[in-house]
Structure prediction request, 117 residues.
Amino acid sequence: MKFILRMLVSAGALFGVAYLSDQALLRVDSFWPAAVIAAVVLAFANAIIKPVAKILTLPITILTLGLFGLVINAVILYLVAALVEGVHTTGLWQTIVAALLIAVVSGIGAKLIDHDR
Prediction:
C-alpha cells in the first residue's frame, strides 16, 4: 500500500512541477496516464539505474561535494521523459530544477507516508 501511495505522491509531484511552473520546467500532457506512468518508470529508474550511476560517478560526486547528484537526477528524469509519451523536458537547467523539486516533494511525501503515529 505504501508503494502505491509513494507512486501517487511522485505522480503528483511530477504533475505539480509541470502545472505550477506553467509547463516551463517540465511538460506533462495529463495526470492520467502520463504522470502516473512516468512516476512508475521514475521509481524503477531510481531503483535500478541510479545506484549504478552513483557508483560510476563517485569521484565526480566527491569532487563537486555531492552536487553532481543533481545532474544524475536530471539525467534520470530526462530518460523517463524520453521513455514516457506525454512527458517532455524543456532544457538542461529546467530539467535539473524540475528533478530537484520532484525529489524534494517526493521525499517529503515519503516521510509523511512512512511516519508512524
Remarks:
- The beta strands are 26-28, 87-89.
